[in-house]
Specification:
The complex is a heterodimer of chains A (290) and B (386). By secondary structure, chain A is of the alpha/beta class. Helices cover 35% and strands 22% of the residues of chain A. Chain A has a seven-stranded mixed β-sheet with strand order 3-4-2-1-5-6-7, with helices on both faces. In chain A, strands 9-8-11-10-12-13-14 form a seven-stranded mixed β-sheet, sandwiched between helices. In chain A, a hairpin with a 3-residue loop joins β8 and β9. In chain A, α5 crosses α9 and α6 runs parallel beside α7. The two termini of chain A are 24 Å apart. Chain B has 386 residues and is α+β, with helices and mostly antiparallel strands. Chain B is built from 13 helices and 18 strands. In chain B, strands 7, 8, 9, 10, 11 and 12 form a six-stranded antiparallel β-sheet that branches. A four-stranded antiparallel β-sheet of chain B has the order 1-6-2-3, with helices on one face. In chain B, strands 14-16-17-18 form a four-stranded parallel β-sheet, sandwiched between helices. In chain B, α5 crosses α6. Classes of the chains: A alpha/beta (290), B alpha+beta (386). At the A-B interface, α4 and α5 of A face α4 and α9 of B.
């Protein structure tokens, strides 16, 4: 078991022949991920990484039966690419691309919900089920098959959590980067729900950051619905108000979205919080042992 | 990306939102003539900077003779306006808005934002206008009325009516409000805005609604398709080092401390600042050098960090994932030599080939301290900053 991706995943890549896509798909294939081809308009019929290139997602599905897509298309074309994947009936869409306009995500999210499709990202490192399937830009070798589910708004902080849970011997069931944008395709709650019902996941690490209220909403959800131990870290206690901290979504505006509020909400929900990201691994180990 | 008030009001006009008549003076010699052309006897003159709090800082005045219009323009043009929202340098005033003075009967707040929770565009109105809306939200949230606009459905008349009711408008004003509501959301969607605020929206002496101030922020991610918005960017309003960083695709935010930070990833960059504070120090900046760390980006990052005189030590925190640590270490060593860094550097590298990187840095005989543990590295940086 795991969440979202596993040995049954049949993936294509949109923007397949670009340099980033090529590098990361090659690594994913070497990891054992079942990437069966890709889509680059105008390059239909070519071969790339020993796999067929298709002109459209629809065509790719017809030939390969793909059920998942990972998108590396530049931001200005990304809305069309995601729409194309949704229209073709893909139910899991992973968007690595950074810089998609917020209003595009508003309409895409509405459409995805209607079609009961899942979007992960944008502006995210993707997801991995260690030992089985990697669809993202994370370094494979820090992961270890195991029992911790990790969900995070930040890429490199996910790697920190992965590294610590590997070194401590717990490993990961699946790791999901939901991305740093204001309107993510999937929220903490969507992923927490999946981890809660995943038999392989024994504990959950949640990495949030300043901006918005997704962590507070997650806290309320955890209080009512999550029985597994959760450790949370929120980045940006020291961040000034009104300044965007790298991620489009990481901004304290109108006094709202501070790390302090998020910590309070999570603690109130019974979540174990850590103030330093260096303590994520030991905290979840302690919690599982207690 | 933020706009000036006069740019916002010009946009308002093109979307048929009622504003006062105004002119913009860029030289004080123009001020009198432009004021005269408005053909009124009382003017509001406003220094144009992006920051809020202009009124309290003396950047807004009501005047009733042409000499005073000129005097105001002469006083501010070419100077910096310092408000509670700016740093101690303030922001340069390169234009003055001169508009006819409106007699105000009532003041409201009207704003549009993207609401993350409901995943919709939310229009907010409050009968408490002209004041800090965050305070209203804090103290009397019942005085804020909200309407959600679904992006695929557009604004509805019912939503406009419910807000108009909250503002206690008469029949004629309600009609005007419905139009404002419709056109404002149209503007928001068509121009890819992140925020628009009209504070205050007023009832004037003729019982009509009018937008007396305008604040607009454009979604920076959408500038590729908003050429006209992009052309309105005024880089003179931006912090110098932040501007320089943006030219190299580095995410930099200037802070007050002594420890310069260089990190890959926005989340880890924030976390690094947090750990510095936990260790008793203060970060001088947020800096995300991005995923593809190389010598060029590291060298530019060094230059930007070092241009801040407060910086006494630099803490580099890189999680080598796709980029191997030895490659990063090589980039750091070359960049240090190229730029000529003469303050101590603490490096924390984690991930692929970290051990190779450690020996490279130690053998380099540069003023570099290596520690693979994040907490230890932060503590060392704090010690060196004292």
């Amino acid at each position: 078991m795991s969440i979202l991706i596993n040995d049954n995943t049949i993936a294509i890549c949109q923007g397949f022949t670009g340099s980033q896509a090529t590098m990361h798909c090659e690594q994913a294939i070497n990891y054992g991920t079942n990437i069966v081809g890709g889509v680059t308009p105008g390059k239909s019929g070519e071969n790339h990484l020993d796999r067929p290139v298709f002109g459209s997602v629809e065509e790719a599905i017809e030939v390969t039966n793909a059920n998942t897509t990972i998108i590396f298309v530049p931001a200005r074309f990304c809305k069309d690419s995601i729409n194309e994947a949704l229209d073709a009936g893909i139910k899991l869409i992973i968007v690595i691309t950074e810089g998609i306009p917020t209003l595009d995500m508003l309409s895409l999210k509405t459409k995805a919900d209607m079609l009961e499709a899942v979007i992960i990202g944008p502006n995210c490192p993707g997801l991995i089920t260690p030992g089985s399937c990697k669809l993202g830009i994370m370094p494979a070798d820090i992961h270890m098959k195991g029992k911790i589910g990790i969900v995070s708004r930040s890429g490199t902080l996910t790697y920190e959590a992965v590294d610590q849970t590997t070194k401590i011997g717990l490993g990961q069931s699946s790791c999901v980067g939901i991305g740093g944008d204001p309107i993510p395709g999937s929220s903490f709650i969507d992923i927490l729900k999946l981890f809660e019902s995943d038999a392989e996941t024994e504990g959950i690490v949640m990495v949030g950051e300043i901006g918005g209220s997704a962590e507070e909403e997650a806290a309320a959800y955890i209080k009512e619905n999550v029985t597994k131990p959760v450790v949370a870290y929120i980045a940006g206690v020291s961040a000034p108000a009104g300044k965007r901290m790298g991620h489009a979504g990481a901004i304290i505006s109108g006094g709202k979205g501070t790390a302090k509020e998020k910590y309070l909400a999570l603690e109130d929900a019974g979540v174990t919080t850590v103030k330093s990201p260096a303590l994520i691994g030991v905290s979840i180990l302690d919690l599982l042992n207690s | 990306m933020n706009l000036h008030e006069h740019q916002a009001k010009t946009l308002f006009k093109s979307y048929s939102l009622p504003t006062s008549n105004f002119f913009v003076a860029e030289k004080y010699e123009q001020a009198k003539e432009l004021a005269r052309k408005l053909n009124v006897s009382k003017w509001v003159v406003k220094a144009q900077v992006h920051a809020g709090g202009r009124g309290k800082a003396g950047g807004v005045e009501i005047v009733d003779n042409l000499d005073d219009v000129e005097a105001f323009a002469k006083k501010w043009l070419g100077k910096n306006l310092i408000t509670y929202q700016t740093d101690k340098e303030g922001q340069p005033v390169s234009s003055i808005l001169i508009e006819e003075c409106t007699e105000i009967l009532s003041e409201f707040y009207l704003g549009v934002v993207v609401d993350r929770s409901s995943k919709s565009i939310v229009v907010m109105a409050s009968p408490q206008g002209g004041v800090n809306i965050e305070e209203v939200a804090e103290k009397t949230p019942e005085n804020i009325y909200k309407a959600s606009v679904k992006i695929d459905q557009g604004p509805s008349k019912d939503d406009a009516l419910s807000l108009a009711k909250g503002l206690n408008l008469n029949k004629n004003q309600t009609e005007q409000f419905i139009k404002i509501f419709k056109n404002l959301t149209k503007l928001f969607i068509e121009k890819d805005l992140a925020l628009v605020e009209i504070n205050p929206l007023v009832i004037d002496e003729n019982q009509n609604l009018k937008c007396l101030d305008g604040k607009i922020s454009v979604d920076s991610n959408a500038l590729f398709r908003q050429e006209d918005m992009k052309s309105l960017r005024d880089t003179s309003q931006e912090e110098l080092r932040e501007l320089k960083a943006s030219e190299w695709d580095l995410n930099y935010v200037s802070l007050d401390g002594e420890i310069g930070c260089m990190v890959n990833g926005a989340g880890l960059a924030m976390a690094t600042m947090d750990i510095i504070e936990i260790s008793g120090g203060f970060p001088a900046n947020f800096l995300d050098v991005g995923g593809g760390v190389n010598q060029k980006s590291v060298a530019e990052a060094f230059k930007i960090i070092l241009s801040d005189d407060n910086v006494k030590v630099i803490l580099i925190n890189i999680f080598g994932g796709i980029v191997k640590c030895d490659v990063v270490a090589e980039g750091i060593i070359s960049a240090v030599k190229e730029v000529g860094v003469n303050i101590p550097i603490v490096v924390r590298l984690k991930g692929n080939n970290a051990d190779v990187a450690q020996s490279m840095l130690t053998d380099s005989e540069l003023n570099i301290v290596f520690d693979s543990d994040l907490s230890n590295a932060a503590e060392k940086a704090v010690e060196l900053s004292r």
